[in-house]
Each structure stands twice: as C-alpha cells, then as structure tokens.
Amino acid sequence: MKKRTVLLLFGSNAMCNSQLAGFKGITIFAISKIRSMSTVILRAFVLVFVLSSAFSVAQTAKIKNLQKALPKTKDSAVYVDKLNDIAVLMHMKDTDSSFLYAIKAKGIASRIGYEKGMADATSTLGIVLSIKGLNHDALKMQTKALAAYKKLNDIGSVARVYTNLSSTHRYLSDSINSVRTLRKGLAEARKKPNDSVMALVYSSYTNLAPGISQDSSRYYIEKALTIARHYKDERILIYNNILEASILIGTPDQPKALPMLEKALVDAQAAELEYMEISTYDLLAKYYAENPKKALDYYDKVMKIVNDKGYITLKSVVLQRMMPYAERLGDKDREVKLARELATTVSEKQARLSIFFSDYIRYTELEDSNKFLELKAKEEEKRILILSLFSLGSMVLLGIIFFLYRKTRRESSQKTVLNGLLEQKNKELEVSDAFKNKLVSILAHDFRSPLISTLSALEVIKMGAALGKEEMDELYGQVQDDINQMLGLFDNTLQWIRQQLDGYHLDIGEHHLFPLVDEATQAFAYELAQKNITIQNTIATNLKIKTDKEMLQFINRNLISNAIKFSPENGTITISAVATGGKIAVSVFDEGRGLDQKTIAGLFSISSTGSTKEGAGIALAMCKDFIEKLGGSIQAVNGLKGAVFTYHIPSGS
After folding, report:
1. Distance between CA atoms of 575 and 591, rounded to whole angstroms?
2. End-to-end CA separation in angstroms for the chain
3. Which DSSP symbol is given to 425?
4. 20 to 30 A Cα–Cα from 444, which one of 178, 287, 583, 643?
5. CA-CA distance, 490 to 252, in Å (whole number)?
6. Averaged pLDDT, 115-125
7. What distance in Å separates the CA atoms of residue 315 and residue 342, rounded to the nearest whole number?
8. What is the mean pLDDT of residues 331-357?
9. Each residue of 486-512: b (16+ CB within 10 Å) or e?
10. Does residue 18 sit in helix, strand or coil?
C-alpha cells in the first residue's frame, strides 16, 4: 500500500543525492547541511498545523491586514488575539517570526490574565519548536496548551492539540503514543459531531493513522466532506480533494487524480490559499514525474510563490526536489545554478537557526525569571497581610510593645535571609560565569575550526574548474566530515548546556551495567562494520550501579566513539568493570597508538584561551563534567596495546 503524507509538502524523506551525477558534490554538501533539518522543515506542512480558522482566508493578505490593524487595536485581549493569528499564519512562512509573535502574545496575555490568549500562544510555540526539531520541548509546550484548553472547556482546541501531539510523537518514532493521542483527539471531536472541527480531525486521522487502507481513507474523507459541505468550508473541501488525488497517484487509477488536482488548484488560487496551492503543484509534479520538464515547470511556480510570498522555510526543500529533474533533463547549467542556490539557502538557514536558538534560550530564561517574580509577589502579599494584622494590634499598648518586639526580630531575620540570598546569588553568578567561559571556549574553537575548514574547502570548490574529479571528491568528503563533526559537537554541547541550566535534576536510580554498555555499543554498528572492529563486553551481567542513565550513556557513547576512532581496522575494543570499595571501575581498552604524556595531561580540560588542549575535543571534557556530577571520576592511561579510559561510578545494591 502506498504511504501517504498528504499536505506534508514534499512528504518523502528520501534525499535526491543518489540521483545526482555531474554536480553531485555541490548537492551532497547542501543536503548534508539540511539533513538534520529536513525532517524538521517538513513538519511545517502536516495538516494538524493548519487546524485553525485563520487558514480559511487568504494567508498573505490576512497577515498584512492583521499587521496593519495592530497599531489601531486598543483592547488588550483583541490585540493578543491578532498577535496569535499572525503567529499561526506565519509558522509556515517564517517560523522565527512566528516564534516572536507568539512570545509577545503570551507575555501580554500573561500580564492581563487572558487565559485563552496564553493557551493559543503556547500551542503555537509548541508547533514552532516541533518544526525546529526540539520535539521534547514541543511536547512539553503542547501538553501545557492542552491543560489550558481543557480548563477553558475548549473542545475544538483540545482536539486540535491532541492531533498536534500525535504528529510530534510520530516524528519521535513513538507510534504507540502517536496513535493514542490521535484517538483521543478523535474522541474529543466527537463531542461536537456536527461541528467543522470534526471534519478537520477526520482529515488529519486519514493523514496520520499508520497503515490505514485506501477504503478507510475514502470513508473518513467522505465523512469530512459531508460536514465541510454543510458548513460550506472551502478549505476542507479543497484539502480533501487533494487528499483523494494523492491516494490515486502511483496506482492504476492515477489518471483520475488529474481533474481533482486541477480543480483543487483553481479553488486554492481563487481562495488565495497559498499553502494548498503549493501542495497541489507538488502533487502535479509527482503526477508528471516521468516528464521532467513539466515537473520542473510546476516547481518553478512553487518557487515563484515561495519567493513572492516569503515562504523561506520551504525554499531549500523545493530546490532539493528540482535537482533530480534538472539532471534527468540533462540541463547541466540549471543543475549548477540550483546547487549554488541550495548552498546559499542552507547557509542562510543555518544563520537563522543560530539566532533562533539564542532567542529560545533567552525565552526560557525569562520564563524562569517570571516564575520567580510571581512567587516573590505572592510572598509579598502574605507579608503585607501580616503587617496589617500587626497594625490593628498596635492600638493597644501591649500590642504596640509586642509589635515592636516582633518587628525587631523580623528585621534581624530579614537581614540574615538577605545576606544568605546575597551569598547564594554570588555563588550562582560564579557558576554562571564559569559556564559562560566554558561555552565561549567551545564556540571559539571547536565550532569555529570546522566552519573555517568548510569555508576554505568551499573557496577551492568555487575555483574548482582546474581541479580533477578525485580532488573534487576529496574536497566534498572534507566538507561532509567537517559538517558531521560540527553536528556532533552541537549535539554534545546542547546536552551539556541542558545539564548546566537551573532546574535540572539528576534522575539517580539503580541500573544493571551490562545492558547499558550493550545499548551504547549498538549505536555504532555501522562504524564497527566499516572498520571490522569487534567489541568485547566482559562486564558481569549482575553488576549494578547507581547513576543517572542519560548522563552515563552520554559518557559510554563518547568513550566507545573515541575508541573506534583511534582503533585500527580489524581491531578489538574491550570493555570491563570491577568493583572497588563501593564503586565500580569501568574501563574501555583500544588497540590504537596510545597517548603521549602531554595529551594525557590536558585530555579532560578546556583551556582559558578557548581551545581544547592538544585537540582532544570537548566531548571528553564534558564526560569529566558529567562523571563528577554523578559522584565519580575519570582518567586515561596507556595500556599494553593502546589507550585505556577508566571511570569510577557508585555501585548499586
């Protein structure tokens, strides 16, 4: 059965790099920059993200009208609603702008106590975080929105958020929770069986339910159409027309899809629903997949909408889709032009992602600060109440004496508390300073070095007319390695940053060590097969440790990765563990060339000048930081054949 991802624009995750030939290198470079973001970009076009009445009108025109109306809006609640409408409309065009509008809406709604506005903004933030790939943060945000809508008894919004949660679980490969939340959304929508929300949920069920048959799809489509016709909901009618056509593409009934798509295109253009117009063009290109010139003509129309209407999130994905058609057409000049444009788009996207990440960190810090201020305000209210009671007692002489006595004691106590708070804040500032210095060190060297290397390689590629194929392939390989290195550094650094943030608590529990090491090893099956390396896990199966599993697995993965990196082909990596005085010593032995004393001395530290000592990288420094938080230690020595990395961790019962 054909797998559908309707309105999941460019729904296949398959990259076009396997189809490229003469200009393969340039495209592989661009795709490697997108690879970690491609799935994130596609999320912007899942149906559940358009379950909003804001999409029943022309999108770009609606945004402009709302933006013009903002300065004239005096009512704060109405102002918040307009901000939320813009945020929802913007999330498919520019997720960064959508994020900023939603934050502004949430801030104002919080100040005026407008719960519906806060819930809408929180829901949009969850969508944006999911598009950006921050799925776990997105789930937290969507869960908060769900609780708020339930409190407001907003059944339609509850159904919509359940469907959003289903989509996010799906991208986390959590099919159980995806189906569970999808069914909950369907159950909520059935509480209003004749409402247009039900039509939207039926459509999304057809799109998201795993393994749904064509007959079942048509059944739910027909139910959605019946409701949509009753409410004259043009948006749902167009969408289901597209949905039906998508089911037919790739089947013997494919010719029946063409009139459906042509009608959907005319209707979408008339309603100025640019997103559905783009989706229809995409399906038309797939319909004419055997005619590359015609397919490219449709994607040219998509690019015109993308450029004219500002759908920057789509641009890189559209360019990817165009590359194989240009190759099949034999248009080398166009291939080169598309590849260059794709590389430029990816660079711009990377810059926007960096800015977004910075904005999101600031936002979480402000959220924490606001919670602290709210708590402080409540404490202040209690203090005022106590003072009022003492004021009444001051009318009696004895009460006055008692009041003065308590006042003296209270002032003394407050000074002690304030001094304690001052000391605590100083300590927190010292910790924050150390954290910032480390982070600056990491950014100054470990992120900067691969970027410089990549830029150098790109300069050579730019002048690559005089280079041979082998030299070009070597440069492309270098660029890909640099990018993969930077992505690995980014993942490690992000996990380390999260451990440093206030509010993080260790989840200490008892775990068997043997399966943890086996689990960490399985992540490197491909690398092990490439170098024909064997890993021997000699740890006793009954050995237990007390630890935070997530932190320990970070350490295990980095030590195994390090051992694989420096092991020769056909080598053996041995992992052993022994109990010593209430702790377990875990050792990773490789058969590499070993370490010199200068490298060992600076292996687990980051220098103040912003570089990792002797090129050891930040991963081992993070391992040391994590193992110390777990109450252990780590060291490295040279063994009989290579290096030996050993860490000590508290033993279990």
Report:
1. 12
2. 51
3. H
4. 643
5. 46
6. 92
7. 8
8. 80
9. beebeebbeebbebbeeeeeeeeeebb
10. helix
